[in-house]
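Here is one chain, start to finish.
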Amino acid sequence: MSSSIVLPPGFGYVAAGLVSTAWVLGWQMLVVGKHRTKSGIKYPQLYAEKAEADASKEAFLFNCAQRAHQNTLEHMPIIVVTTLVTAMKYPVFAGYGCGLWALSRVLYTLGYTTGDPAKRNTRGGILGELPVFGLFLGSTYTAFDLIRSSA
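Its structure:
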């Protein structure tokens, strides 16, 4: 017996948005790896110790790159869930929101790895909060609408 899943028209935008997050995470891994090599911080050490970061600009930049990547990973469950739930009713909106968030993470990372952590948001990284807010609203509305329509 076979089952089928019917995706709403425009779901390709959702796929593209979600795949863009994978590309961003892959790129961030390369950035972290580059800074790990330059700093000499060996595995399995997750971050440079405070003394190492204070003594070496490369170690400090490694911490900045690692933190940008970690922060993106911390946001991923929220992005995936809100994108997929929103996509049930508004796939184009969900896809664009997810894609814009992914683009903002590139700006966030580029700002963070300048060596001035405050630039993580002043270089455009803060723009990612807009699509996150939209995805929260879209997914909440979609969930309530699904509950209401099934009652």
